[in-house]
Write a structure and sequence with these properties.
Number of strands of chain A: 0
CATH class of chain A: Mainly Alpha
Number of domains of chain A: 1
CATH superfamily of chain A: MetI-like
Strand content of chain B: 15-25%
Strand order of the largest sheet of chain B: 2-1-3-10-4-11
Order of helices and strands of chain B: HEHEHEHEEHEHEHEHEEHHE
CATH topology of the largest domain in chain B: D-Maltodextrin-Binding Protein, domain 2
Distance between the termini of chain B: 77 Å
CATH class of the largest domain in chain B: Alpha Beta
CATH architecture of chain A: Orthogonal Bundle
Order of helices and strands of chain A: HHHHHHHHHHH
Number of helices of chain A: 11
Structural class of chain B: alpha/beta
CATH superfamily of the largest domain in chain B: Periplasmic binding protein-like II
Largest sheet of chain A: none
Number of domains of chain B: 2
Number of helices of chain B: 10
Oligomer: heterodimer
Distance between the termini of chain A: 49 Å
CATH topology of chain A: MetI-like fold
Structural class of chain A: mainly alpha
Shape of chain B: elongated
Chain lengths: 222, 258
């Protein structure tokens, strides 16, 4: 049995989680304080990947990052190809994981008592300082929960990935895709092995993250 | 007070009438559940509307997917009366497992395999071209689960180019995905059924694979044991083999069995 799907899944999920954690937290922070027009619509757009079927997300990603896509055509001229490469996996996983990170983090930031922020402002703290010293520590449980959810979603991503990254053995075939094709071709034993591995890995990674978060929350509280 | 009682009675009356209406409709309309291979879905929708027009008391419910996953759903106990597969393999498997009425199936139509490219691209003109061009991306179904992929694999080895292909091949979970990739220009070429290629406007057919290059592409149809008591399925089966239905299939690019 070829074990490349294991490494590809792990690599993709970790990269995608890191990407979503940074981008998701940043946008959640911006949106929590955004007062301009169309807040509801922007929020809806940001949540779209959660609502749409994964294949539709994959189709949109193809239209954006494809060789003839809006962004893809520019990247292609620069010699960068996204579709049918590992970067396709990362983009698909990040896109579907993003709303989970964004939603949880945003509500956590919104629940932070605004009087702390206002007090910090009267004392002359910069925006950056307020974010790192007040908002982020107080919203930490939400950020943490968001990243665990994002990781889980990135790990299990299937529909959009298959659409934009395809299933190239040793390059873009992740564990969920390996499970799908093994089960489709009647190879139940191989499918079961992968199911077992993905369960173990997910439980392991999520409990590891939980330990770390508990530890870091203790640190924040003190 | 009296008014309230009256309203309550009216509501009760209307509700029971409504429920009774539900009963009669259900008793009148027989439902036929058909699982059809994705490559035949559009043709079946046509057939469905023609048949329902002639037989207004029959309700046909279509379900489509790759033949492999449909077989799997049937094995898991899905409520399907008629199964139309795009390959004999999955049908034979169901037959061995004893899902078919009288242990038999009928061959409905045949199909052909074609090489397609994006509408506006000219870098590949034939199947042999696939081997010469090193920087192309070729799309086909996963050979182990998608029948079109199995046939495509046979075609590639018949033309003697299967050794050069793996590095530039992307495998799709069904034929529709191959079509999307080629139509959007993500893949430079792909191999699908002739019937699929005719429907998708973004692609053009550059070559039809030699009929000897792959096993004949039969679409077998069978009634499943769950439909034993439904005699409507028998009539529908007869209709599918009739001249009228075969003509509809022909407009979609399927060929009759000779």
């Amino acid at each position: 049995m070829d074990f490349s799907p294991f490494w590809i899944s792990l690599k993709t999920a970790i990269t995608a989680t890191l990407l979503t954690v940074f981008i998701g937290t940043y946008i959640a922070y911006k949106m929590a304080f955004y007062k301009g027009p169309g807040k509801g619509i922007i929020d809806g757009l940001l949540n779209l990947p959660l609502v749409l079927p994964p294949t539709v997300v994959g189709f949109f990603l193809l239209l954006i990052f494809g060789r003839r896509g809006i962004l893809g055509s520019m990247l292609y001229e620069m010699g960068i190809q996204i579709v049918f490469t590992w970067w396709g996996n990362v983009i698909a996983a990040s896109t579907v994981a993003f709303p989970l990170m964004y939603k949880t983090t945003r509500s956590a930031i919104e629940q932070v008592d605004r009087s702390y922020v206002q007090a910090a402002k009267t004392l002359g703290a910069s925006e950056k300082r307020i974010f790192f010293k007040i908002l982020l520590p107080l919203a930490w449980p939400g950020v943490a929960a968001g990243s665990v959810l994002a990781f889980a979603r990135a790990m299990g991503e299937f529909g959009a990935t298959l659409m934009i990254a395809g299933s190239i053995i040793g390059e873009t075939r992740t564990m969920p895709i390996a499970i799908f094709f093994a089960s489709e071709s009647g190879n139940d034993q191989e499918a079961l092995i992968w199911v077992f591995i993905i369960c173990m890995l997910s439980i392991g990674m999520i409990s590891l993250m939980n330990y770390w978060l508990e530890y870091s929350q203790k640190y924040v509280r003190e | 007070m009296k008014n309230k009682k009256l309203i309550a009675r009216c509501i009760a009356l209307f509700t029971s009438i409504f429920l009774l209406m539900g009963c009669t409709v259900k008793a009148e309309k027989a439902q036929i559940n058909i699982a059809v291979a994705a490559s035949m879905f559009e043709a079946m929708e046509d057939i469905k509307s023609v048949y329902q027009e002639e037989n207004p008391d029959i309700d046909i419910v279509l379900q489509s997917g790759s033949s492999g996953s449909l077989r799997r759903q049937i094995e898991q106990g899905a409520d399907i009366d008629i199964f139309i597969s795009a390959s004999l393999i999955h049908m034979d498997q169901l037959k061995e497992e004893g899902y078919l009425i009288d242990n038999q199936y009928k061959t409905l139509v045949t199909n052909e395999l074609v090489l397609i490219t994006p509408q506006d691209s000219g870098c590949i003109d034939s199947i042999r071209d696939l081997a010469n061009n090193t920087s192309i991306i070729f799309a086909m179904g996963e050979p182990d689960s998608v029948p079109a992929g199995t046939y495509a694999q046979e075609v590639l080895s018949y033309y003697g180019i299967d050794q050069q292909m793996p590095k530039k091949t992307v495998l799709a979970k069904d034929v529709k995905e191959v079509l999307t990739w080629v139509a959007l220009g993500e893949a430079d070429a792909g191999m699908v059924y002739k019937t699929n290629a005719l429907i998708e406007k973004g692609v053009k057919i550059v070559e039809t694979a030699d009929a000897n290059s792959h096993q004949p592409i039969f679409y077998p149809m069978a009634r499943l044991k769950t439909a034993e008591a439904k005699k409507e399925t028998l009539e529908f089966e007869a209709f599918m083999l009739s001249q009228e239905a075969q003509q509809i299939f022909a407009t979609y690019g399927f060929s009759e069995i000779r």
